[in-house]
Specification:
The complex is a heterodimer.
Chain A lengths: L1 H16 L2 E6 L3 H11 L4 E4 L4 H5 L3 E3 L2 H9 L4 H5 L5 E3 L2 E5 L5 E6 L9 H9 L4
Parallel strand pairs in A: 1-2
Antiparallel strand pairs in A: 3-4, 5-6
Chain B lengths: L3 H13 L9 H16 L17 E4 L4 E3 H7 L2 E5 L5
Antiparallel strand pairs in B: 1-2
Chain lengths: ~130, ~90
């Protein structure tokens, strides 16, 4: 959520450069709609149903059993959010993809508390042909 | 505005303090640290797509149930694609 707010913060700059932000989550639309509204996002959140796209990017892992129970106990019911029983998640990641479909920048971290700065993404876009 | 890093650090500090509103137990925090350390050690990061590789295309529904195809978007402009976990 904090990262989405930060991306919203650079969205007009990204648009001015001539690029577009999209955010992908395994959550079904009932939740993506809520997030968009709550944060007043001006970019799309796409439902990556059953993590099909995240899998292709090599980002998916299964939550260990001990954490699954902890998550459930605080109401993070991923089975409901994702419409699947497996409790899988994507590693948080940010990619810059050029018009030819080639990855120009990639930030992936197994530690979900570490995210790239949005200003860094703007800088990377400046080096990406429009 | 504070950097994303600073805001994440502040949140982490508050979350792991055990104080309200999160009231996380020491055991719970330890479990989360363990899971992150295990994931780091699994070398999963190295398997993710990297700079220079071709991005898979995707066609997915947005928050308004409109189908969005990455190939259509890329036809017009470069993309920033952010993978995040969810609303929680």
């Amino acid at each position: 959520m904090m990262e989405l707010e930060a991306l919203q913060g650079i969205n007009s700059e990204v648009k001015a450069i001539g690029a577009r932000v999209v955010a992908l989550t395994p959550e079904v639309e009932r939740y993506t709609r809520g997030v968009c509204k709550k944060l007043n996002l001006t970019f799309d959140i796409l439902t990556d149903l059953h993590l099909k796209t995240a899998e292709q990017f090599g980002l998916v892992f299964i939550l260990p059993d001990y954490l699954r129970e902890l998550y459930k106990s605080v109401g993070i019911t991923l089975d409901k959010f994702h419409d699947e029983p497996e409790y899988r998640l994507p590693m948080p990641a940010r990619y810059v993809i050029d018009k030819d479909g080639i990855i120009r920048a990639a930030d992936v971290n197994a530690d979900y508390t570490i995210r790239p700065e949005p200003s860094e993404t703007v800088r990377q876009l400046a080096f990406t042909p429009q | 505005m504070a950097s994303l890093r600073e805001r994440l650090d502040d949140f982490k500090k508050a979350f792991e303090s055990g104080a309200p509103p999160y009231n996380m137990t020491h055991e719970a925090i330890e479990m989360m640290h363990r899971a992150t350390a295990e994931l780091k050690a699994s070398s999963i990061e190295g398997a993710a797509l990297k700079v220079g590789e071709r991005a898979p295309s995707f066609t997915l529904f947005n928050q308004d149930h409109v189908q969005v195809a990455s190939t259509d978007l890329l036809h017009e402009e470069p993309l920033v694609v952010s993978f995040f976990r969810g609303h929680w």
